[in-house]
Amino acid sequence: MKYILLSLGLLFIFSFAHSQVVEAPIGFEEYDPISTLKVEEHIPTRAKFPFIDVHNHQYRMPEQNLRELVSVMDTMNMQIMVNLSGRGWYQEWDEGTAHLKGALLNVMKNEPKRIAVFTNIQFKGFGQPDWTDKAVAQLAADVKMGAKGLKIYKSLGFSGIVDEKGQRVAVNDKRIDPVWAKCGELGIPVLIHTADVPSFWDPLDRYNERWLELKMHPGRNRIKDKVPFEQLIGEQHDIFRKHPKTTFINAHMGWYANNLRKLDSLMIEFPNTYVEIGAIIAELGRQPRAAKKFFDKYQDRVLFGKDSWVPAEYVTYFRVLETEDEYFPYHKKYHAFWRMYGLGLSDEVLKKLYYKNALRIIPGLDRSGFPD
């Protein structure tokens, strides 16, 4: 009898413990349900038309095997890649110039029709009496050497770039004005990234749509920077306003892809601006009707961009832009826990987005690989 009771007791404990494991709550990070929805699926591994990626970063271009890079581009129908990191991450002027020269020489020798390079501003020594003249002269020299445009990193405006007094350099600092004006004079576009996702400034609580991303990447929390999103974006808009003869490509749709009414008003206010879609395709995919209307209205001012070079992720972009698929996931849960829908853009709009608009505003790109 004693052994029977002991066995029953052990069985009860095992059953209780097992039931506790099964019924334990699942955290948000682990919850990843498989949809039971049965709908048509179209997975375009290649873009419908040849395209230009105006927002890419290749950091080893002086010594990189460009033929290997182009072979990967061919698999997805990317005809031209724009490498925005012409000067690399160098702080010294001479090192940055050497990197850019090496990148341009590699391109000219091996893939002159398939790769374009933008230059960057060196902010070391900002505030010194000769900085502005030096930056303008260097920009002109870089374009003469073969650079097709200027890329401004998001570090401008944050506390990482300071002047000779240790003060934050605002995006619209007047000492940079001659640089923007020179770009207009040279006929090259400025692809500018200012600020970050607005939710990065919001409290890290259950109401923050980017909670999981900020938990996984705490360095993206911008509250500690003490420079509000609205201030940074306002500074950016000020340079658009002050330099109407310069063409600006607003990276990541100016971080207003989740507020297309606001972006619409900015497109009206600043006719010298274009937008590109790097890293915000998930925002477009969750509002397909509104996004399609925006692309139809501004079909002459939107450009294709991806940002990070992860070839497998381009499929998501093609699927959102080209198909009318329903309720499919983004490739990174921490960026977008919601499902997306295809916009089903017309061929006319796709051609402008994929290549026609870029060919019009970026000088010197080879046109031979594109249909009319």
Describe the 3D structure.
By secondary structure, the protein is α/β, with parallel strands linked by helices. The protein has one domain (47-315, 345-361): Metal-dependent hydrolases (TIM Barrel), CATH 3.20.20.140. Helices cover 39% and strands 10% of the residues. The chain is built from twelve helices and eleven strands. Helix 8 links the parallel strand 7 and strand 8 (273-276). Helix 4 packs parallel to helix 5 (177-186). The protein is globular and about 65 Å long.
Do you know the CATH topology?
Answer: TIM Barrel
Bin the helical content: 25-40%
How many DSSP H or I helices?
12
Q: Mind telling me the CATH superfamily name?
A: Metal-dependent hydrolases
Which regions contain 5 or more consecutive residues with pLDDT less than 50?
Answer: 1-21
User: From the 3D coordinates, which CATH architecture would you assign?
Assistant: Alpha-Beta Barrel
Main sheet makeup? 6 strands, parallel
Strand-and-helix sequence, N→C? HEHEHEEHEHEHHEHEHHEHEEH
* Beta strands, count: 11
Into how many domains do the coordinates divide? 1
Mean pLDDT: 93
Structural class: alpha/beta
